[in-house]
Amino acid sequence: MYQKGIIWNNDVPKWTLQRRIFQSGLGSNVREKAFEVATEKTRQEINRIKATARDNNTVPTIDLLNILRHSTLAVTLDVALGIQLDLERSQHLIDSIVEYFKAWEFFLMKPRFIWSLFPLRLYHHKKSISRLQELIRNLVSTLNKQSAPFISQLHENGLTIDEINQCVLEMVLAGTDTSSVSLYYTFILLTENEEIQNQLLDDSRDDSFLESVLRESMRIMPV
User: Fold this and answer.
1) Pfam families attached here (predicted)?
2) CATH number of the structural domain spanning residue 75
């Protein structure tokens, strides 16, 4: 991570270059595609829930955060990398992302001298980091360099393979987990405010109020 992506990089020229790549890779020209992917993925998740309820003849318990993670991961992979994964591979990647963030919390929040006091946890978190890094390396190795603006610019601007891998990892992390957690807490807040719920339903054909709610959700940043 150190000096390779944009999260932990104090090399100003490199950081500036990679930040520009992130911004251009998520510009206005890809928003329409992101909307289409998000709509289709949400429809798939709803149909899957309905099918589960129908097959089991019961109301299933829904893991809303996991559903949102599947949606945000699908958008990130399609828009930033130009690929799609099946449900099983997506879930494996999501689980690895969640474990990576747990490791991140351990290493960033606890002083270094404390790490050795929890050898099993230390081992587990190191494995979690290595697992996601390996998944990303394997993913990048299969990508078409021209599959999406983000990945093509990473290759065209002279980044090393380690820098490319780290940038892809950070895009997947932020696009999947940060976005889904922000949306999750937005839904939680909506359940506590019936008036706004009803207004969203009444104005479902009017994007202006929905856009306002989504913009407000950007204030809820988990990291």
Assistant:
1) p450
2) 1.10.630.10
